[in-house]
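User: Quick sanity check before I run a bigger batch. Here is a single chain. Can you write out its predicted 3D structure?
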Amino acid sequence: MDINRRTVIRSATGAAALAAFGTVAGTAGTAFAGTSSSSSSSSTSSAYSLELDSTAWSYDSTNDVYYQIGKMYVANPAATDYENLSIYVPGAYLKATVNSDGTTYTATLNPKGTVGAYSGRTAPIVIPVNTPGYAGQKPATSYSYSSVSKYLAAGHIYVWPGLRGRDSSTSTRSDAAPWGVTDLKAAVRFLRYNRSVLPGSTDDIVLFGMSGGGAQDTVAGTSGDSPLYHPYLRTIGAAMEDAKGRPLSDAVAGVMAWCPITNLHEANLSYEWNMGQFASTGTRASGTWTSAYSTDLAKAWPKYVNRLGLRDEKGRRLKLTESSSGIHLAGSYYDHLIGVITTSLNNFLSDNTFPYTITTQGGPPGSGSTGSSTTYATVADYIAYLNTGSTWVTYDATTNTVTVSGLEGFVKSQKTGNKPVGAFDGYSRGQTENNVFAMGLGAPSHFAPLTRDVVKANEATYATYSDWNSAYGSSAYDSDFAQKDSVGKDMAWRNDAYNPMYFLSPAFAGYRKSQVARHWRIRTGIMQGDTANTTEINIALALQNYGIRDIDFATVWAQGHTQAERTGDSTTNFITWVESVVRK
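Assistant: Done. Predicted structure follows.
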């Protein structure tokens, strides 16, 4: 498979940028030349004011919390049921007097009020992105202290925005990508528009989420102020300028992402290289066109990753090379991946004592299914279990450390793929992510040009299989790619907007055309079959190569698709991390 390239102009001096991948990067790259970052905040007729009403605070006297619920954060919302937010503020950060109605309060800032390590001037603002599978995040409709208590007790200001998503579209409105992240950016801009009446530091806005939520906060964290989003932001009347006409920013300071299901543009390819090439059942069973498709996707991924130009912490170029068995299971990139797996298992042995009980995840978070539990009396017992199918782990009892010999043994033991071939952009448009890019209600769409390229190059061969259907051909992808959304943008533009690598890698036209968050904490469960190991690894590497210095990355052994942590609980660890990185 060849990846099309085009050259874009990176600066006013006329210096040529590195060539960009594919139709997606090329199309969106054109937009940067003529998009201004200082356009008006909304259309001439606005349905809602962007001003936060300082006389409309409610107060929880028991817990000393001021809050507002249901404030529209854009002037012309497309979805009033989603595009509103709630703000929760520790009482110490405001000075308030009760209004004549006896129930609401007028509040002014108290910059010297303190809670823990923070003051009314320095308190970080944390924003949850709870959008599993890129679903919508419903806004709060009533006050509950229990859901925000830990964050407020730590001195955070908690902002809960409603966000549209793949499941919130109506017969008259499509809420598919990039509307979820657009709404998130609009909420951030609203906070900065009202910084003079809100406590806390809008320089220290931190996003946190898991799975599709971790993916969307990763996209938002890499795409700060990207012109790709400006047409969408203007449509809904987001705050583009402050009261004095100065441009506002939607960049954030930090991102906490657990198991981010992202890099969707190439996810079909990496899934088959990482896991699919070691499977032989279901859609990967011999004699099926999808088995051939799996192999072709896996072969295409090394070509993609080699062109990213990723480097490790020592500056060594990471590449995959051909191997005597399997598909490109050699090279510096392969060695780096095995190193990540080895570190994960060694961290597990260092963090825990035996006997140790491992509980497998029985279903997605919140499903109520707890899976099964097995107790291992000694480390040796556990290593023997890992090596049940083949010997791929060597244990040194003297140092309590292991060496991992290869990817196949690890995958078959710990990371079996749970998705069919075409794991993200399904050949029949049947995957969750096809709805992420839907063109309307009940209209899932193809979105991945790298996948289309594989199908196009091999569909004559696929057509010789009895289970092939011509509806799976490349023309179906091309048809979907050509459609335009309500803002007039095609799939290429939308795909770029939702691809964090587009902003981080010099292989894409969006490189260094956004403001990237300066603090990152990424955690993923190594056992998850929801995405390839390479998804989070490539994000961490690209951030490091971009020049981001604060990247706290770990792949957590014996955990799956969850808010994975080596030790402790995710909320406490997140709060501790925020304190370690924000300005005091």
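The chain is about 30% helix and 15% strand.

User: Great, the batch can go ahead then.
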